[in-house]
Design brief:
Order of helices and strands: HHHEEEEHEHEHEHHHHHHEHEHEHEHE
Largest sheet: 8 strands, parallel
CATH superfamily: Aldolase class I
Number of strands: 12
Structural class: alpha/beta
Strand order of the largest sheet: 4-11-10-9-8-7-6-5
Number of domains: 1
CATH class: Alpha Beta
Distance between the termini: 41 Å
Strand content: 5-15%
Helix content: 40-55%
């Protein structure tokens, strides 16, 4: 096996190990994938303004979020169907997050129940919530999350309908997975993945089964609440005693509304380019949103992060933390939980070297004047 020294190496190994129905679900975006590509390309247009002779000996990467201090300014964000990439993938991600000293966000569409993850000791557990069409089912899920001891609730607000993810449509990706001739041929070409699925069983929608009953047919555009509104935000917020985050903010106006609604934090996000193609990247929106509401609520971002330097750039532009989506999945798809841990270590090392060369020894010293935007649209 080639030496794995960066995120791109793990991505390539995951691509080789996984059948296309799995890798394309992980990797691809909506429609022409303009936003998916922009999420990554934007980082190349941000350059550093390094200072030298600063005299510090080490880099402090600790960050306090909502009263708790973490070893890194990172969050492993919610990514559904982790069991499609590795057996018990949700557990593997949670354990890797715990080892790194950062939070793990369990998705509504996880392959393990929130109760199963709650039994794992020493994991800082957050929960990502999709609001159901039936408010009583949403409230039931929130109550279960609260009872299981999760500390933070994350409401995703950018999925009134699913984006047109054409690779997924072509594959017919769903749970249960369709048994077609192209699917069978693809699986046979990836025997290690196939053996794992045979041994451990295909992924399931464990939390959906918990709330609606085992074997419930899952159609997101029918099950999730299309009419989600700020009134729903206030209602759900009223049922949750801890930190409450909105994920999927894509405008200064909505960031301001979130502040008015009393939420504790926001994640500027275009859902990894999987929803509205043509949306701006989170990094483009970050400086103005941070300037507008950063003193009132915690501002975080995701999208396109594949280097420790990307994280440093986002923090300099005003993010309090950076959420990781596909990046830990590359590690999971390549080598399971060990791969996720290795990727987090790579990002930590790259952050440390980048900040050292930038002349910055602590996160609080990362300011907008540490970077500058270049190229078209700057």
């Amino acid at each position: 096996m080639r030496k794995l020294i960066n995120v791109f190496d793990y991505r390539e190994l995951a691509r080789k190990r996984l059948p296309s129905i799995a890798f394309d679900y992980m990797e691809r975006g909506a429609e022409d994938e303009v936003t998916l590509k922009r999420n990554r390309e934007i980082f190349a247009r941000i350059t550093y303004r390094p200072r030298v002779l600063t005299g510090f000996a080490s880099v402090d990467l600790t960050r306090t979020l909502f009263g708790r201090t973490y070893k890194l300014p990172l969050v492993i964000g919610a990514t559904g169907f982790a069991g499609l990439f590795w057996p018990d993938g949700d557990k593997a991600m949670a354990l890797a997050a715990s080892a790194a000293g950062i939070p793990y966000v369990l998705p509504t569409l996880s392959s393990m129940t929130l109760d199963e993850i709650a039994t794992i000791p020493d994991v800082e557990r957050w929960f990502q919530l999709y609001a159901f069409q039936d408010d009583s089912k949403t409230d039931e899920l929130v109550a279960a999350v609260r009872s299981a001891g999760y500390t933070t609730l994350v409401l995703t607000v950018d999925t009134a309908v699913s984006g047109k993810r054409e690779a997924t449509i072509r594959h017919g990706s769903n749970v249960p997975m369709p048994i077609t001739l192209p699917f069978l041929l693809d699986v046979l070409a990836h025997p290690h993945w196939a053996w794992q699925m045979l041994r451990h069983g295909p992924p399931r929608l464990a939390n959906v089964d918990k709330i609606f009953g085992k074997g419930t047919a899952f159609f997101p555009d029918q099950m999730f609440k299309r009419t989600l509104s700020w009134e729903d935000v206030v209602r759900i917020r009223g049922n949750w005693p801890g930190p409450f985050i909105l994920k999927g903010i894509q405008s200064v106006e909505d960031a301001r509304m979130a502040s008015y609604a009393g939420v504790h934090g926001i994640v500027i996000s275009n859902h990894g380019g999987r929803q509205l193609d043509g949306s701006p990247s989170a990094i483009e929106l970050l400086p103005q949103i941070a300037e507008t509401v950063g003193k009132d609520i915690t501002v975080m971002v995701d999208g396109g992060v594949q280097r420790g330097g990307d994280i440093v750039k986002a923090l300099a532009l005003g993010a309090e933390a950076v959420w990781l989506g596909r990046t830990p999945l590359y590690g999971l798809g390549a080598r399971g939980g060990a791969g996720v841990t290795e990727i987090l270590n790579i990002l930590r090392q790259e952050m440390e070297s980048t900040m050292t060369l930038l002349g910055v020894g602590r996160l609080s010293a990362l300011q907008p004047d540490c970077v500058q935007m270049t190229g078209a649209g700057s």
